Protein backbone atom coordinates (compact mmCIF):
# COMPACT_ATOMS: atom_id res chain seq x y z
CA UNK A 1 0.00 0.00 0.00
CA UNK A 2 1.27 3.46 -0.86
CA UNK A 3 -0.04 6.18 1.44
CA UNK A 4 -0.72 9.43 -0.39
CA UNK A 5 -1.85 11.93 2.23
CA UNK A 6 -5.62 11.45 2.42
CA UNK A 7 -5.77 8.28 0.33
CA UNK A 8 -4.07 4.94 -0.22
CA UNK A 9 -3.00 3.27 -3.44
CA UNK A 10 -3.26 -0.51 -3.39
CA UNK A 11 -0.02 -1.94 -4.79
CA UNK A 12 -1.08 -5.57 -4.82
CA UNK A 13 -0.93 -5.16 -8.60
CA UNK A 14 1.16 -2.83 -10.81
CA UNK A 15 -0.14 0.72 -11.12
CA UNK A 16 0.23 3.25 -13.92
CA UNK A 17 1.70 6.71 -13.36
CA UNK A 18 0.88 8.98 -16.29
CA UNK A 19 3.55 11.49 -17.30
CA UNK A 20 2.64 15.14 -17.85
CA UNK A 21 5.62 17.26 -18.87
CA UNK A 22 5.05 21.00 -18.63
CA UNK A 23 8.33 21.74 -20.40
CA UNK A 24 9.56 23.02 -23.76
CA UNK A 25 12.49 20.60 -23.91
CA UNK A 26 11.61 17.14 -22.59
CA UNK A 27 13.06 14.45 -24.84
CA UNK A 28 9.75 13.04 -26.08
CA UNK A 29 6.90 15.53 -25.65
CA UNK A 30 8.63 18.83 -24.92
CA UNK A 31 6.48 21.84 -25.79
CA UNK A 32 3.22 19.94 -26.26
CA UNK A 33 1.69 20.89 -22.90
CA UNK A 34 3.22 24.25 -22.01
CA UNK A 35 -0.20 25.87 -22.39
CA UNK A 36 -2.19 25.21 -19.19
CA UNK A 37 -5.39 24.39 -21.09
CA UNK A 38 -3.59 21.80 -23.24
CA UNK A 39 -1.95 20.39 -20.14
CA UNK A 40 -5.27 20.01 -18.34
CA UNK A 41 -6.80 18.37 -21.41
CA UNK A 42 -3.94 15.89 -21.53
CA UNK A 43 -4.31 15.19 -17.80
CA UNK A 44 -7.99 14.38 -18.36
CA UNK A 45 -7.00 12.07 -21.23
CA UNK A 46 -4.45 10.23 -19.12
CA UNK A 47 -7.01 9.70 -16.36
CA UNK A 48 -9.66 8.54 -18.84
CA UNK A 49 -7.16 6.07 -20.32
CA UNK A 50 -6.58 4.52 -16.91
CA UNK A 51 -3.79 6.34 -15.09
CA UNK A 52 -3.84 5.55 -11.37
CA UNK A 53 -1.83 8.68 -10.58
CA UNK A 54 -0.21 11.53 -12.49
CA UNK A 55 3.35 12.85 -12.38
CA UNK A 56 3.74 16.55 -13.22
CA UNK A 57 7.13 18.03 -14.02
CA UNK A 58 8.08 21.53 -15.13
CA UNK A 59 11.85 21.08 -15.56
CA UNK A 60 13.34 18.67 -18.07
CA UNK A 61 15.94 16.31 -16.62
CA UNK A 62 16.97 14.69 -19.89
CA UNK A 63 20.74 14.37 -20.41
CA UNK A 64 22.26 17.81 -20.89
CA UNK A 65 19.06 19.69 -20.02
CA UNK A 66 19.45 23.31 -18.97
CA UNK A 67 18.36 24.08 -15.40
CA UNK A 68 15.16 26.07 -14.92
CA UNK A 69 15.00 28.96 -12.42
CA UNK A 70 12.77 28.36 -9.40
CA UNK A 71 10.23 31.04 -10.29
CA UNK A 72 9.90 29.79 -13.88
CA UNK A 73 9.35 26.22 -12.69
CA UNK A 74 6.65 27.45 -10.31
CA UNK A 75 5.03 29.49 -13.08
CA UNK A 76 4.75 26.44 -15.33
CA UNK A 77 3.73 23.99 -12.63
CA UNK A 78 1.47 25.50 -10.01
CA UNK A 79 -1.57 26.63 -12.06
CA UNK A 80 -1.73 23.25 -13.80
CA UNK A 81 -1.24 21.35 -10.54
CA UNK A 82 -4.09 23.24 -8.91
CA UNK A 83 -6.42 22.31 -11.79
CA UNK A 84 -5.26 18.70 -12.05
CA UNK A 85 -5.82 18.10 -8.33
CA UNK A 86 -9.54 18.50 -9.06
CA UNK A 87 -9.54 15.38 -11.28
CA UNK A 88 -9.69 13.00 -8.34
CA UNK A 89 -6.48 11.02 -8.83
CA UNK A 90 -3.31 11.33 -6.73
CA UNK A 91 -0.76 13.75 -8.16
CA UNK A 92 3.01 13.44 -7.90
CA UNK A 93 5.29 16.40 -8.52
CA UNK A 94 8.60 15.75 -10.25
CA UNK A 95 11.01 18.38 -8.91
CA UNK A 96 14.47 18.56 -7.36
CA UNK A 97 13.91 21.99 -5.79
CA UNK A 98 12.57 22.23 -2.22
CA UNK A 99 11.16 25.71 -2.98
CA UNK A 100 8.99 24.25 -5.75
CA UNK A 101 8.06 21.17 -3.74
CA UNK A 102 6.85 23.25 -0.82
CA UNK A 103 4.49 25.30 -2.98
CA UNK A 104 3.18 22.10 -4.58
CA UNK A 105 2.59 20.52 -1.18
CA UNK A 106 0.74 23.60 0.03
CA UNK A 107 -1.64 23.14 -2.91
CA UNK A 108 -2.15 19.47 -2.00
CA UNK A 109 0.29 17.38 -4.04
CA UNK A 110 0.32 13.79 -2.83
CA UNK A 111 3.87 12.64 -3.63
CA UNK A 112 7.27 14.22 -4.30
CA UNK A 113 9.37 12.62 -7.05
CA UNK A 114 12.98 13.73 -6.56
CA UNK A 115 15.37 12.65 -9.32
CA UNK A 116 18.36 13.62 -7.16
CA UNK A 117 17.44 10.96 -4.61
CA UNK A 118 16.71 13.23 -1.64
CA UNK A 119 20.32 14.38 -1.47
CA UNK A 120 19.12 17.80 -0.32
CA UNK A 121 18.25 17.56 3.37
CA UNK A 122 15.80 20.43 2.90
CA UNK A 123 13.70 18.14 0.69
CA UNK A 124 13.81 15.41 3.31
CA UNK A 125 12.73 17.83 6.03
CA UNK A 126 9.94 19.18 3.84
CA UNK A 127 8.47 15.73 3.06
CA UNK A 128 8.64 14.84 6.74
CA UNK A 129 6.93 18.06 7.80
CA UNK A 130 4.07 17.61 5.35
CA UNK A 131 3.83 13.86 5.99
CA UNK A 132 4.16 12.90 2.33
CA UNK A 133 5.89 9.98 0.68
CA UNK A 134 8.81 10.59 -1.65
CA UNK A 135 10.29 8.84 -4.66
CA UNK A 136 14.02 8.32 -4.19
CA UNK A 137 15.73 7.97 -7.57
CA UNK A 138 19.31 7.03 -8.35
CA UNK A 139 21.44 9.38 -10.41
CA UNK A 140 25.24 9.23 -10.06
CA UNK A 141 25.50 13.00 -9.54
CA UNK A 142 22.67 15.43 -8.72
CA UNK A 143 23.08 17.35 -11.99
CA UNK A 144 21.36 16.18 -15.20
CA UNK A 145 23.81 18.20 -17.28
CA UNK A 146 26.74 16.17 -15.96
CA UNK A 147 25.22 12.76 -15.22
CA UNK A 148 26.21 10.98 -18.45
CA UNK A 149 29.87 11.82 -17.83
CA UNK A 150 29.56 9.68 -14.68
CA UNK A 151 28.02 6.60 -16.34
CA UNK A 152 30.80 4.36 -15.01
CA UNK A 153 30.17 1.51 -12.57
CA UNK A 154 32.01 -1.49 -11.23
CA UNK A 155 28.75 -3.26 -10.36
CA UNK A 156 25.82 -1.07 -11.31
CA UNK A 157 23.21 -3.16 -9.50
CA UNK A 158 25.14 -3.18 -6.23
CA UNK A 159 25.99 0.53 -6.43
CA UNK A 160 22.43 1.61 -7.20
CA UNK A 161 21.06 -0.67 -4.49
CA UNK A 162 23.50 0.71 -1.91
CA UNK A 163 22.61 4.31 -2.75
CA UNK A 164 18.85 3.71 -2.65
CA UNK A 165 19.06 1.80 0.63
CA UNK A 166 21.07 4.56 2.31
CA UNK A 167 18.85 7.38 1.05
CA UNK A 168 15.68 5.54 2.00
CA UNK A 169 16.94 4.87 5.53
CA UNK A 170 18.00 8.49 5.96
CA UNK A 171 14.57 9.72 4.83
CA UNK A 172 12.67 7.38 7.12
CA UNK A 173 14.85 8.30 10.11
CA UNK A 174 14.08 11.95 9.42
CA UNK A 175 10.33 11.31 9.51
CA UNK A 176 9.38 10.84 5.86
CA UNK A 177 6.45 8.41 6.20
CA UNK A 178 7.20 6.23 3.19
CA UNK A 179 9.62 6.02 0.26
CA UNK A 180 9.36 4.64 -3.26
CA UNK A 181 12.57 3.50 -4.96
CA UNK A 182 13.44 4.27 -8.59
CA UNK A 183 16.65 2.82 -10.12
CA UNK A 184 16.82 5.81 -12.46
CA UNK A 185 16.90 4.14 -15.87
CA UNK A 186 18.76 6.37 -18.31
CA UNK A 187 19.95 8.79 -15.65
CA UNK A 188 23.72 8.52 -15.87
CA UNK A 189 23.39 5.01 -17.29
CA UNK A 190 24.18 3.40 -20.64
CA UNK A 191 22.20 0.59 -22.27
CA UNK A 192 24.30 -2.08 -20.56
CA UNK A 193 23.61 -0.52 -17.15
CA UNK A 194 19.88 -0.25 -17.80
CA UNK A 195 19.68 -3.89 -18.90
CA UNK A 196 21.59 -5.10 -15.85
CA UNK A 197 19.31 -3.16 -13.52
CA UNK A 198 16.19 -4.46 -15.24
CA UNK A 199 17.39 -8.07 -15.27
CA UNK A 200 18.18 -7.87 -11.54
CA UNK A 201 15.37 -5.57 -10.46
CA UNK A 202 14.30 -8.07 -7.80
CA UNK A 203 17.37 -7.02 -5.81
CA UNK A 204 15.99 -3.48 -5.55
CA UNK A 205 12.51 -4.84 -4.74
CA UNK A 206 14.08 -6.91 -1.94
CA UNK A 207 14.89 -3.69 -0.07
CA UNK A 208 11.24 -3.72 0.97
CA UNK A 209 9.92 -0.49 -0.51
CA UNK A 210 7.61 -0.02 -3.51
CA UNK A 211 9.63 0.21 -6.72
CA UNK A 212 8.88 2.64 -9.54
CA UNK A 213 10.23 2.04 -13.04
CA UNK A 214 10.38 4.62 -15.83
CA UNK A 215 11.63 3.31 -19.18
CA UNK A 216 8.93 4.94 -21.26
CA UNK A 217 10.17 5.92 -24.74
CA UNK A 218 13.76 6.19 -23.51
CA UNK A 219 16.92 5.95 -25.60
CA UNK A 220 17.59 2.39 -24.45
CA UNK A 221 14.26 1.31 -25.92
CA UNK A 222 15.26 2.93 -29.20
CA UNK A 223 18.67 1.26 -29.13
CA UNK A 224 17.06 -2.15 -28.68
CA UNK A 225 14.28 -1.71 -31.24
CA UNK A 226 15.84 0.56 -33.83
CA UNK A 227 12.95 3.02 -33.42
CA UNK A 228 14.49 6.49 -33.55
CA UNK A 229 11.45 8.67 -32.84
CA UNK A 230 10.69 8.59 -29.09
CA UNK A 231 6.91 8.86 -29.50
CA UNK A 232 6.92 5.65 -31.56
CA UNK A 233 8.71 3.54 -28.93
CA UNK A 234 5.42 2.38 -27.42
CA UNK A 235 5.69 -1.38 -27.94
CA UNK A 236 9.23 -1.59 -26.64
CA UNK A 237 8.27 0.48 -23.61
CA UNK A 238 5.35 -1.83 -22.82
CA UNK A 239 7.56 -4.92 -23.12
CA UNK A 240 10.18 -3.47 -20.77
CA UNK A 241 7.58 -2.41 -18.23
CA UNK A 242 5.84 -5.80 -18.23
CA UNK A 243 9.20 -7.42 -17.51
CA UNK A 244 9.71 -4.93 -14.67
CA UNK A 245 6.29 -5.81 -13.29
CA UNK A 246 7.22 -9.49 -13.42
CA UNK A 247 10.34 -8.62 -11.39
CA UNK A 248 8.25 -6.84 -8.76
CA UNK A 249 7.90 -3.20 -9.87
CA UNK A 250 4.64 -1.75 -8.67
CA UNK A 251 4.51 1.68 -10.31
CA UNK A 252 5.15 2.14 -14.03
CA UNK A 253 5.81 5.73 -15.09
CA UNK A 254 4.60 5.99 -18.70
CA UNK A 255 3.63 8.37 -21.49
CA UNK A 256 1.28 5.90 -23.23
CA UNK A 257 -1.30 5.03 -20.60
CA UNK A 258 -3.87 3.24 -22.78
CA UNK A 259 -1.33 0.80 -24.22
CA UNK A 260 0.00 -0.03 -20.76
CA UNK A 261 -3.49 -0.39 -19.29
CA UNK A 262 -4.41 -2.95 -21.96
CA UNK A 263 -1.17 -4.87 -21.52
CA UNK A 264 -1.52 -4.90 -17.74
CA UNK A 265 -5.13 -6.10 -17.97
CA UNK A 266 -3.88 -9.24 -19.74
CA UNK A 267 -0.82 -9.55 -17.49
CA UNK A 268 -2.93 -9.28 -14.33
CA UNK A 269 -5.37 -11.93 -15.58
CA UNK A 270 -2.52 -14.34 -16.27
CA UNK A 271 -0.77 -13.75 -12.93
CA UNK A 272 -3.81 -13.80 -10.65
Automatic annotation (TrEMBL):
Catalytically driven reaction(s): (7,8-dihydropterin-6-yl)methyl diphosphate + 4-aminobenzoate = 7,8-dihydropteroate + diphosphate
CDD domains: DHPS
Record domain Pterin-binding: where: 14-265
One Gene Ontology biological process: tetrahydrofolate biosynthetic process
Domain of life: Bacteria
Pfam families noted in UniProt: Pterin_bind (PF00809)
Name under which the protein is recorded: Dihydropteroate synthase
Organism phylogeny: Bacteria, Thermotogati, Deinococcota, Deinococci, Thermales
Amino acid sequence: MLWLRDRALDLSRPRIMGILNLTPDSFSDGGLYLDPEKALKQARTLVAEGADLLDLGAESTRPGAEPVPVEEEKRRLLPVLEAVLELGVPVSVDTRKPEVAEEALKLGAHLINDVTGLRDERMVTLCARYGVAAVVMHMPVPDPQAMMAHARYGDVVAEVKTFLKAQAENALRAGVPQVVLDPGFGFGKLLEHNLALLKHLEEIVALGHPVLVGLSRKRSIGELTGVEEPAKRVLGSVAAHLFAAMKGARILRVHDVAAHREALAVWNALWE
